[in-house]
Design goal:
The protein is an alpha+beta fold. 48% of the residues lie in helices and 21% in strands. The protein has nine helices and six strands.
């Protein structure tokens, strides 16, 4: 048997290597910290540590640069990276997209935090821009839910309750009960920093920069692009409207909202 035949037979066993994202699909890569509950508890303050938030924002920027993403959203220990529907990165190979996004996130967070960390990844697919708006609205709702639960749990823990006691106190409690629980400990959830309750969004913005033209000896204005890290995202309908404005020029040449 020739080596070429042997190699071909082995490559046939790479079952998912040919799996690709359909051309023109709205794609989101989501990476999550692996084992971050114990990882963060040992290294960061609870429930929210600004240092951890900065590490996640830095990791999000690294992913934004790697995948030329028009919008990246991060909350808790996860980051969602939107791909342009026209993107053809790595031939749209799912294995490549998932593994490289997880690898970039792991390396970037490790560099930012100064200690080894690992992320896993997955792919989400949508048909229209409206699907994308639904996705990011879903993740923001998750951010609010997780923030409320986290603040309640760690407030009870800091008040002297054990892990099991804090968990039992929250079991079956509704949103209003959890807010009242926090208020009884001097915490107004609505007044906490927006980045904790709504997550952080990263997107490109244009701005004018004034320079000097030595030939004409005059000041000139030039348009530049930069990444904006938005820690005061709107929520609910306003967030959906914000996303709609952001996505409109991206999808105008490929997909339409419903």
């Amino acid at each position: 048997m020739e080596f070429t035949d042997f190699e071909a037979r082995q490559r046939e066993r790479e079952w998912f290597h040919g799996l690709t994202v359909p051309p023109g699909s709205w794609t989101v890569l989501r990476v999550d910290g692996r084992g971050f509950s114990k990882f963060t508890e040992a290294r960061f303050e609870k429930p929210f540590d600004p240092r951890f938030g900065e590490c996640m924002a830095e990791t999000a920027q690294a992913l934004m640069a790697e995948f030329a993403s028009p919008y990246v959203y991060t909350e808790s220990d996860e980051i969602s990276v939107l791909l342009d529907p026209a993107a053809d990165l790595f031939g749209r190979g799912v294995e490549k997209l998932v593994s490289i996004s997880a690898g970039v996130a792991s390396a970037a967070f490790t560099h930012a935090a100064g200690t080894p960390a690992h992320f896993d990844g997955r792919v989400w697919l949508g048909t229209t821009a409206e699907d994308v708006i639904d996705y990011f609205s879903w993740r923001q709702a998750d951010a609010t839910r997780c923030a409320l639960n986290g603040w309640c749990y760690w407030t009870l823990r800091q008040a002297g309750k054990t892990a099991s006691e804090a968990g039992a106190a929250l079991e079956g409690a509704g949103v209003s009960e959890k807010n009242e629980m926090l208020f009884a400990h001097g915490v107004n959830f609505a007044e906490l920093p927006a980045w904790q309750r709504r997550g952080v969004g990263l997107y490109w913005e244009t701005y004018e920069r004034t320079g000097f033209d030595p030939v004409r000896e005059i000041e000139v204005a030039a348009t530049r692009r930069r990444v904006r890290v938005e820690r005061e995202l709107p929520m609910k309908d306003e967030y959906r409207a914000f996303l709609g404005r952001l996505l409109q020029p991206i999808g105008s040449g490929s997909r339409r909202t419903r």
